[in-house]
Amino acid sequence: MQEFLEFTLGGISTGMIYAAIALSLVLIWRGTRVLNYAQGGMAMFTTYIALIVINRTGSYWLGFVVALAAGLLLGALLERSVVRPTLRKPPLNAVIVTIGLLIFLEGLAGIIYGGQYRSFPPAYSITGLKVGSVALGISRDGLFTAGAVLAAAALLAVLFRYTPAGLRMRATAFSPDVARLLGVRIGRVLTLGWALAGLLGALAGLLVTPTTFLYPNSMDAIFVLGFTAAVIGGLDSPVGAVIGGLLLGVALSYVGGYLGSDLVEVAGLAALVAVLMLRPSGLFSSTSVRRV
């Protein structure tokens, strides 16, 4: 029973990281119908920026804030300069461009920072918490991870539902042509969506890297699992992205705990294939496929 509790709570913490990546993918997909394969590379690059700031100033939180700001700026910059010209072109163009961006960012990181593995400090202690003599399988940093992603998801929900900018983003996602006729500046809305996705990716990089290492390809496997969480939840559903991340995190925690850590990535890919075969629209998506 104690092992089950440890695996469950640990899976929730990890699943929140997958949820952050999934949310960033959903934000872009809803507005542009583009899957940003460079999301992991963007997260990796902003984490390097955070590490530089932390090493030079000694302040974790300054590095944290600078990385989030860098993610916001990087997302907006890439949308305006590279991605936007592909939006009215065949879908394969956007796929090639985002894959090219991933290769470029990982190569640039290797040139600037080198290929060696670097450790990244956590926000809080990674020592597992206990209640009496019972180990919970989650640390203070894990609680911070869960709380940070839930807070980000709640802020996004408020943005979409209660603000003019969120209303414009929802209108653009539903029918960009009608939104344009109503006076919505579609370009600015799409830039905002990419900027927010960049911020969420940066958050995921900051949260996951203390449990792994930082190197140019460090976010590739995390991106694949975040994409799997987005597909499980439905690429149109922010709520589904969070639930998909939690379900995947807990399931993979059980696989790693009971069957062995070598099977975790295989199980993640198996989950992706199963969802694509049985319910390609996702478990929580209620919308049909549409084109911009």
What does this structure look like?
By secondary structure, the chain is mainly α. It has one domain: ABC transporter involved in vitamin B12 uptake, BtuC. 72% of the residues lie in helices and 3% in strands. The protein has 11 helices and 2 strands; from the N terminus they run ααααββααααααα. Strands 1-2 form a two-stranded antiparallel sheet. A hairpin with a 2-residue loop joins strand 1 (128-131) and strand 2. Helix 1 (2-32) packs across helix 9. It is globular, with a radius of gyration of 19 Å.
In short:
This protein has 292 residues and is mainly alpha-helical.
Number of helix segments?
11
CATH topology: ABC transporter involved in vitamin B12 uptake, BtuC
Query: DSSP strand (E) fraction?
Result: under 5%
Please state the second-level CATH architecture. Orthogonal Bundle
Shape, per Cα inertia axes:
globular
CATH class label: Mainly Alpha
Radius of gyration: 19 Å
CATH H-level homologous superfamily name: ABC transporter involved in vitamin B12 uptake, BtuC
How many individual β-strands? Answer: 2
Q: Roughly what percent helix?
A: over 70%
Biggest β-sheet: strands ordered side by side in the sheet: 1-2
- N to C succession of SSEs: HHHHEEHHHHHHH
The stretches of 5 or more residues where confidence is low (pLDDT under 50) are 288-292
Please give the domain count: 1
